[in-house]
């Protein structure tokens, strides 16, 4: 037999539960500050018995309770320039004691959107010898670290730029442009705490060309101060900078499979004339004429030197299968 419950009674029960809810809520309301403290405490404890704490995850990836990374996620220019900039970023990481994320490579560039690991282009072993004080992590390991973390790592975004005319250092805080980073750089493939509270700092480093040692040290001191930050991940990028920011170093060493392939090719071609024909800033209308002049010049050089092999390196988008014969 069922006991009929009147509509009014039901409403009464619902109302009671509702108010009980409010009372419980009020009784257990915690000040925001306490939430933060509890949060920090929790982050050190496993949440489920089989789940490692964030501290343990950090130790596994960084060897310390805390991880601090510097992640140059995008280098706009081609390899020779990107190579220099990457070195500058390693030098910055050393200044502010952060481990460097070894960004992916591909298409003659360095960017987190590329498909190949850093070691496809560069020799990590030699790079570590060049910077014995700096720690490195591969992009894929870094990504894994972000995914494993319970509390997602927080970020600061830094944009460095140089000036053609203003020698002064400048600092500007921008409104966060997470959406742009997600849309253009797919930064959400890393499990970071991407929210509106992240600092977006734009730093002008003055005129980089022809800077002397004293000025370079001044920049180092300035950046050490300005880039001090508690965020676990520093996303960093640069604009307009065309020179090494600090002391000029030899390029990042290339992967041995690259240098071996180059040597093999050189052995096969020897003796040969190598041409680096940079068309990037050439004028399109003049190109046919330039090309003819180049051929004339090379023919002459070939006649004089008796060398008939040529190696042409150019940024013209020649399809991979195309071959060029100079007759
Ligand atoms: C650079 O700083 C100096 C000294 O503070 C100032 O006089 C000068 O106007 C600044 N230059 C520019 C381009 O802002
Ligand atoms: C972003 O993170 C900060 C720090 O934890 C927090 O106070 C804030 O509420 C978050 N903002 C959003 C929109 O999630
Ligand atoms: C070939 O090279 C010589 C010596 O550099 C030069 O004098 C001559 O004009 C060149 N000829 C052509 C066709 O470029």
UniProtKB/TrEMBL annotation:
Record keywords, A-Z: Membrane, Transmembrane, Transmembrane helix
UniProt-recorded Gene Ontology molecular function terms: transferase activity
Superkingdom of origin: Eukaryota
Transmembrane portions of the chain: 12-30
Gene Ontology biological process terms, A to Z: fucose metabolic process
Name of the protein this chain belongs to: Proteophosphoglycan 5
């Amino acid at each position: 037999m069922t006991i009929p419950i009147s509509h009014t009674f039901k409403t009464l029960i619902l109302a009671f539960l509702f108010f009980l809810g409010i009372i419980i809520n009020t009784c257990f309301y915690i000040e925001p500050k306490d939430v933060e403290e509890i949060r920090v405490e929790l982050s050190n404890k496993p949440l489920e018995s089989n789940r490692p704490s964030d501290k343990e995850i950090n130790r596994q990836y960084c060897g310390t309770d805390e991880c601090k990374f510097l992640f140059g996620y995008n280098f706009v220019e081609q390899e020779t320039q990107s190579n220099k900039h990457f070195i500058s970023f390693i030098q910055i990481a050393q200044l502010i004691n952060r481990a460097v994320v070894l960004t992916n490579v591909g298409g003659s560039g360095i960017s987190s959107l590329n498909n190949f690991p850093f070691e496809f282009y560069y020799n990590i072993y030699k790079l570590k010898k060049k910077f014995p004080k700096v720690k490195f992590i591969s992009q894929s390991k870094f990504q894994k670290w972000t995914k494993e973390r319970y509390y997602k790592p927080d970020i600061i975004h830094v944009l460095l730029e140089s000036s053609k005319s203003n020698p002064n250092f400048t600092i500007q805080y921008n409104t966060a442009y997470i959406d742009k980073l997600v849309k253009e750089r797919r930064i959400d493939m890393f499990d970071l705490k991407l929210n509106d509270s992240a600092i977006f700092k734009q730093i002008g480093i003055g005129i980089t060309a022809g800077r002397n040692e004293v000025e370079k040290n001044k920049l180092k001191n300035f950046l050490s101060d300005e880039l001090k930050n508690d965020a676990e991940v520093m996303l960093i990028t640069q604009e307009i900078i065309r020179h090494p920011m600090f002391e000029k170093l030899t390029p990042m060493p290339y992967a041995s499979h690259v240098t071996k392939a180059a040597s093999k090719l050189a052995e096969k071609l020897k003796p040969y004339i190598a041409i680096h024909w940079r068309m990037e800033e050439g004028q399109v209308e003049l190109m046919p004429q330039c090309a003819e002049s180049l051929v004339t010049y090379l023919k002459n050089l070939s006649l004089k030197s008796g060398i008939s092999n040529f190696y042409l390196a150019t940024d013209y988008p020649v399809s991979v299968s195309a071959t060029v014969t100079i007759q």
